[in-house]
Amino acid sequence: MGSLLNEAGLAAGRAAAVSAHVSGVSLGTVRRAVVKVGSAVLTEGGSLSWDALARLVRQTASLRLRGVETLLVVSGAVAAGYRGLGLDEPPREVVDRQAAASIGQPKLLAMLSGLFSAQGLEIAQLLLSAEDIEDRRRFLSARHTVQRLLAQGVVPVINENDAVSDDEIKVGDNDHLAALVAQLSSADLLVMLSTVDGVRRDGGEGPRFASISAGENVDEHLGENRSSTGVGGMQAKVAAARLASRHGTPALIARGDVADVLELALRGADVGTWFPPAEHGLTARKRWIAVRSRSRGALIVDAGAARALRDRGASLLARGIVAVEGEFTRGARVEIRDAEGACFAVGLASYDAREIERVAGASAEAFHDLLGYRYVDEIVHRDDLVLLSEAQVRELS
Question: pLDDT (tens digit, 9 = 90+) per residue, 7-29?
Fold first, then answer.
């Protein structure tokens, strides 16, 4: 199989964007997508299907070439590992599933690595839990890792740490994890690929919903069927889709064995059930940054940095900082003030107060000399920053 990617193609793809309008859902410009793939999509006869994995990898590489950064939340570790325990079928007991996952996870990653390598792409494994996203410091650390990987053209492959996380195995929350990853990565789209083509009425037997609005109750139509290798179900997928939509990210539940289903989704084709994003100007996470957490300090910036933040949507770099006020840790919310002392933005700091004092006014290249290390280039990344004018216009409280 020839490589879909080369340096020229990747550079051209980064400048591209995919835009679509479907089922009353405006996708806007999709530059980053989270794709969750259930165990049932990737297995055949209870074991991982090479053809299914190859189909997923080919589509992901195609999207990456077009400039759509893609994060994968992939189930299948239990399916890949249970035979290594001498079992004839996927186990149901929690400890057995944990043991099977510990065997299967490296096998699953090895298969994906080989397939992606043939397409000219590197992958990276991230094992996350809900706590990694709910804790601000761990959230920010995971976010920086994801941002760095995507910037280098690497495809993050994300999973719950099934070998030790019994909560995920009991409730089947890779769907929920995918919604949290969409929030963590500031994704423009969440796609959950299943063995069904969306949410259907009457427990899966009736017509398919083209879209489900935020206030629409469809619980009476949801069945509880689960695959032998998976632990989720349509209820979990709908809950995850609703979570993503509340954070401002459109979500889609679609059939995973449809050829080029990801390409069709990005074109706005009718391939599943859409969940439109909630209608507010800021994502739920940015609303939280703006008004639901208390500032621990302040960064005073020069006129050039203030213009870059206000007019260009830039990240705050160390060279634009002239003073630091307060004591705060990495991940804390801080105010961003101009030279006159007016607070015009808030955001999450990538370094603590003492570190920022040492690098203020310097370039990122000088971090190693000043700190002995360089964590990330940005003091406050633009995805973690909210201009207060935005919040005021939308009357956040």
Answer: 434 433 433 444 445 544 445 57
Structural domain count of the chain: 2
> Which pLDDT value is given to residue 219?
72
Please give the residue range of the domain that contains residue 30.
7-275
* Average pLDDT estimate for 86-99: 87
| Phi, psi for 34 (deg, rounded to 5) | -105, 125
User: Please, is 18 exposed, middle or buried when counting C-beta atoms within 10 Å of its C-beta (0-12, 13-18, 19+)?
Assistant: buried
- Residues 226, 255 within the same domain: yes
User: Does residue 92 register a pLDDT over 70?
Assistant: yes
**Closest among 177, 184, 135 to 384, alpha carbons compared:** 184
Assess contact for 367 and 361: CB atoms under 8 A: no
| pLDDT in the model for residue 313 | 86
Distance (Å, rounded) from C-alpha 193 to C-alpha 39?
A: 10
Instruction: Check: CB of residue 51 under 8 Å from CB of residue 210.
Output: no
Are 221 and 363 in a shared domain?
Answer: no
pLDDT tens for 267-326 read 877 889 998 887 655 665 676 676 545 688 999 999 999 999 988 889 999 999 999 999
Degrees to nearest 5, angle at CA 174 with 101 and 267: 125
* Structure token digits, residue 199: 């949410």
CA dihedral for 300, 303, 305, 306, sign (positive or negative): positive
Residue after which a domain boundary falls, among 257, 275, 293: 275
Name the pTM for this structure: 0.70
Among residues 255, 275, 295, the one where a domain terminates is 275
372 conformational bin, left if phi > 0, alpha if psi -120 to 50, beta if neither: left
Pick the residue with more confidence: 199 or 118? 118
- 16 and 47 share a domain? yes
Torsion-angle region of 395 (φ positive above 0: left; ψ -120 to 50: alpha; else: beta): left
Q: Which two tokens stand for residue 321?
A: 């900082």
* Same domain as 92, residue 162: yes
Task: Compute φ and ψ for 327, nearest 5 degrees.
Answer: -115, 125
The answer to whether residue 2 is domain-embedded is: no
Q: Is 90 exposed, middle or buried (0-12, 13-18, 19+ CB in 10 A)?
A: buried
